[in-house]
Design brief:
By secondary structure, the protein is mainly alpha-helical. The protein has helices at 2-7, 13-25, 29-42, 46-62, 67-80, 84-96, 100-112, 119-136, 140-153, 158-170, 174-186, 191-195. Helix content is 78%, strand content 0%. The termini are far apart.
């Protein structure tokens, strides 16, 4: 009833918001998506545009099952008003959509911020970049670069060392493999582990 009454009302921001609530209550998701798109297009500030694009992204993902539209809208939101929580949402949705190349590009841009990104986050990004490049994109040389960069930030990192060991072994890079094995042996006090 409420949705029907407000469909014909003048499209003021208040009327559109009331209509949006009514559409959500009646699960009229496609019509709500159209309305949210109009609100996004009418947004006048970067913060409002980002908020509307995020709302639309969540609607596309959760109610319409359209991950591509969710990614497009989260990307719009991030481009006008970058936000760390939204960045994590975009990473999550890219993973769910298995859009590995785009995920790699997004993580590379985040890593390029350098000092603005905490060391632990840089390490997590580098390890994920290494994994994605090696296992999802078939780019072992770029995976090696990511893992080596992780070791520069945290020498002796077990995950990066183990991944490099595999990549060097598969690539026939014996000198680099010996260097990683030697570093691992030096980092342990256990004689049995050192001998392995």
């Amino acid at each position: 009833e409420l949705a029907r009454a407000f469909r014909g009302a003048p499209p003021t921001p208040h009327h559109l918001e009331v209509l949006a609530e009514a559409l959500a209550q009646t699960a009229a998701w496609p019509e709500l998506a159209e309305l949210r798109q109009r609100q996004l297009e009418a947004a006048s500030t970067p913060a409002d545009k980002a908020r509307r694009a995020t709302e639309l992204a969540l609607l596309h993902e959760r109610e319409l099952g359209d991950l591509d539209a969710a990614i497009r809208n989260l990307t719009v939101a991030q481009s006008v008003d970058p936000d760390e929580a939204r960045q994590h949402e975009l990473v999550r949705v890219l993973r769910a959509a298995q859009r590995w190349a785009e995920l790699v590009q997004l993580l590379e841009r985040e890593l390029a911020q350098g000092r603005a990104t905490p060391l632990e986050r840089q390490l997590a990004i580098l390890l994920e970049l290494g994994e994605l490049r090696a296992s999802r994109l078939g780019r072992p040389a770029e995976a090696i670069q990511a893992y080596e960069a992780a070791l520069e930030r945290r020498p002796g990192d077990a995950t990066a060392s183990a991944a490099l060991e595999k990549l060097y072994e598969h690539g026939g890079r014996d000198r680099e493999l010996a260097r990683v094995l030697e570093a691992r042996a030096e980092s342990t006090d256990d004689p049995m582990k050192r001998a392995q």
